[in-house]
Amino acid sequence: xxxxxxxxxxxxxxxxxxxxxxxxxxxxxxxxxxxxxxxxxxxxxxxxxxxxxxxxxxxxxxxxxxxxxxxxxxxxxxxxxxxxxxxxxxxxxxxxxxxxxxxxxxxxxxxxxxxxxxxxxxxxxxxxxxxxxxxxxxxxxxxxxxxxxxxxxxxxxxxxxxxxxxxxxxxxxxxxxxxxxxxxxxxxxxxxxxxxxxxxxxxxxxxxxxxxx
Length: 213
Description:
Layout: H1 3-18, H2 20-30, H3 36-67, H4 72-91, H5 94-101, H6 106-126, H7 129-140, H8 147-167, H9 169-207
């Protein structure tokens, strides 16, 4: 596989698996009511966290899983369960309600938004089992040293697109309004739960092949 093909395949694979467009309303809900400056910082932290996690997965992901004796299937199952649990809070509107209640100071609001941007948005919604396992698979196919940088470049490009999307969140928030954000959050909660169940089912089939039929 030549370098250009490897770069394109890795980038397209990440974009398809992660589906950042689906996570976009979650970011809007998380940063609802915050200033554009704070939203910019939160978006930067979120995109940076995704890139960091995927680069770590590229470099030592397989080693970490092997060290703890964790299979990719078990990792997928755990991630799927976690996503299902988080999607419940979106379906109930807990995430947006907590934001409306507010915090004591602007600093605490920013800290809370950054915390939600890291978990659950960056991990495991964006940099989840699917993306991490995909990067680990690509790292196992590396035959030349410079290909580490090729895959790393694809991850950086993906992170840059995420960051640009998050920077435009304020524009989407103005269009949707409070009601639109509320509806989109619950719809995405349902989609996220379906995604979590799908990831979990793939993991369980890997652990128990008999389930695959």
